[in-house]
Write a structure and sequence with these properties.
The chain has about 900 residues and is of the alpha+beta class. The strands form 8 sheets. Strands 2, 6, 7, 10, 11, 14, 17, 20, 21 and 22 form a 10-stranded mixed β-sheet that branches. Strands 24, 25, 26, 27, 28, 29, 30, 31 and 32 form a 9-stranded mixed β-sheet that branches. Strands 3-4-5 form a 3-stranded antiparallel β-sheet, with helices on one face. A hairpin with a 4-residue loop joins strand 3 (about 40) and strand 4. Helix 5 (about 125-140) packs antiparallel against helix 8 (about 265-280). The longest helix is centred in the middle third of the chain and has 164 residues, at about 495-660. The radius of gyration is 57 Å and the shape is elongated. It is found in: Cytoplasm, Cytoskeleton.
Amino acid sequence: MKSQRGKSQRKQAASPSQSEPVEVYCRIRPIDDPGDTVCVKPIGDSLVQLIPPEISSLRNGVTKEYQYTFRQVFDETASQKAVFDQTALPLVEDLVAGKNGLLFTYGVTGSGKTYTMTGEPQDQGILPRCLDVLFNSIDNYQAKKYVFRPDRMNRFEVQTEADAMMERQRREIMPNLTTPSKASLKRPESGERICDPTKVDTVEEDNNYAVFVSYIEIYNNYVYDLLEELPYNSITGYKPPQTKILRTDSGDNMYVHNCTEVEVKQSQDAIDVFYKGQRRRKVAHTALNAESSRSHSVFNIRLVQAPLDERGEEVVQDDVMCYDSEKICVSQLSLVDLAGSERSNRTKNSGDRLKEAGNINQSLMVLRNCLEVLRENQKTGASKMVPYRDSRLTHLFKNFFDGDGKVRMIVCVNPKMTEYDETIHVMKFAEMTQEVLITKSQQSNKFDLGLTPGRRHLHELQLENEILNPPPLPSMLDFTFGPPFPLLEMVSPTDDVTTRNIIQCLNERIRRRQEMSLDFERSCTFFRSQLVEFEQDHKVTKSRLIEIEDKYSQKEKLFTKMESKNKKLERKVDELSKQLKDMERENQLLGLQVQDKNWKIQAEKNNFDKLKADFRNRLQMNNMAWEKNLEKARRQLEKEAENQLDERDRKLEMLRDIVNENDLPPATPSRARMRTAPQPTPKPRTYTNSAGIQTAISETDITSVGSSTIASSARAAAGRAGNTRVTSRSTNRIPAAKSIPNLSQVGVTPSSSKSRQPVVNPRYHRRSKSSGSAEQWLEHKPADIVETNTIFQPQMTKKKSVTKLDVKDTKTATKYVLTHQEQDSSDELVTKLIKGDVIPTLGGGAAVVFHDVETLKQVSPGSRKRRSPTTPRYDPALQWTDTEERCSVALEGHKRSRTTNL
């Protein structure tokens, strides 16, 4: 019996109003580096946003973001199982129901099309999962091998199981008796994979099923069979494969002529066949992909199903109606892995690779043109001819776009920003494809042959009963009529023995005959009674069967209601899960906004604290500046008052001299004399640091550096360095120990008069200069000191720098300098060098007697112009009356010019 897929028959069954659009799905490939910028961002379950790069802009200079809608969007975290359940599982259900389906992946090279279709052994793609689900569903309903046989004209023949067994022996058993070749022993290594346990429940139990697979590729617009056995020659090797042609069968369906179709009985066999053809597929290395597909691959899964006979044992055999398509159903699922579109300026292809890229782009352009013409014809009602024949790819799948099955497309996208120009073309093609309408197929695997449903189940029950309760073997009854006849020959007339023997034999036979007659009558009576009982049991069984059928119909109606209710609840659960996902996304966005606001509040708070601290510091510095200015004004007023008092005392002295004629000393000394009188020598104040070193500071031992020396040093240093800034350096007399700034920072604390280590009198401490020992400076510099790099630096020929004082550091030191930094009223950094002599004490320690404070700071040198001669030289208003300020500032002059002290 042969079959054919009649497209005209399905078109007549389908209503023109029942149509559906091409379902397009989007899958975003995960990026290798999470830090890279992306151009595609999912913003919902069915919406993606295309973000242009910064250099891309429109004519008006404004960049524009695009949004595209799909049936379903799978982000970077979507699993292979989720992609299969949404895209390919409904097509497998249609395949079992006798309907056709087409699923193809589309995208640029390197976007993950092949991975989506095949996957890995541990995480399978769409193709292996389709095979697993199909064989999980029809595992118990498969026909024996070679019952269905392809005739290489897109149809199938059905033969008896006896013929199928003979063909199995001829193809499988007989070749294995000889030594197998290496090629036949080689098995494709597909690895240990994890099977998909999903199962389709809409399988017709009264049908027998068979699965056939084929694998072809379209390379440079030529069709090649990847499963074809190539002839081998020991000299020339394997013969190159021959191209195949496309033909139409009697139902106007396109197919590949003489294409190899392999019957498989389990999913692993089909996957082995797939990997066998995969090794022969054209792949090559390009600049964008290490294994770039150079051809379009098509893996066809054809499911053949036919009804069982009235006994439920074999497929229906009818020679009279052997070409009737109602006795067999063939459905097909085509899984297409399209090659990625390429641009030669990006892939740097040349030679064969450039030719392959041109053919790939040409076939994809023809596919786009066909879909555009279909959409235009459906929208405007035009009757333009669709250019299917411009490419082998569109010509092969012409029937699907004309309404012979469901069409789905998975758009694979690489979200890298460098793929933006290619991605926007893919998005536009996907948007246009969704507007094409395909007529729904009405083909079904239900056969109306007038046979009783449930035949397979009844046959299986009978087989189980025969196995559990075998029929009793028939008893061997003795049907002989008695002993054999004796010898009938009489020797004499008086031979009574022979006559007596014959009489006994005849009597025995008569008795046996009577017993057999009685047994026959009893058997007939028993058979009649059994027949009556069987008829009664049959009536009871029939009535029970009617009741069971009624209950079954009621349960079936209840099951249908429950199933519809379950579907409604599942849809409701899906809607609630989508709402939950939306709420979770919204919650995440709100959480991010809250974090952003908290961060801004914290930043504002930090800025406020910083401004507050800055204001407090500035206020303290202003207060210090005001105190200093007030102190200067007070001293100036005191000096003026003292001058006035001195002038008054001088006049009084003159008046007293005039009045007093005798030359007697005045009774009361004048203020001038009191000031010029020698003052008593104050005792030095002693300080002790944390290391046990005593430090003595005396006012009388402090010497000051003259202004002329400072001015000459400044002029020489400025002449050498050529700086435009002049460093102010001042040497101040230390008024008292309490005026030393921040002594606590270096660990020096005032000690009481009852110190355990008395200080040696400096007058009795002398170092021998004849021994050749030079001055050894001990520089005490804190760790957080700021280097000023000023012109004037202390000249220390031999020094040792420390950040923390220790007793052992003072053993060889003769001089001590403490570095202290602070900020003046004009926010300038001031460095003070507090110098002193290191004197050993009687207790074995050391004491420091401070005698100098040197101040370093950077000031502007001002104008180099000389003072105008018209300005009074000794104008009191223009003179600096503070000796400390006059000695601490020096102006740099020209060559051979003196330094002017203001």
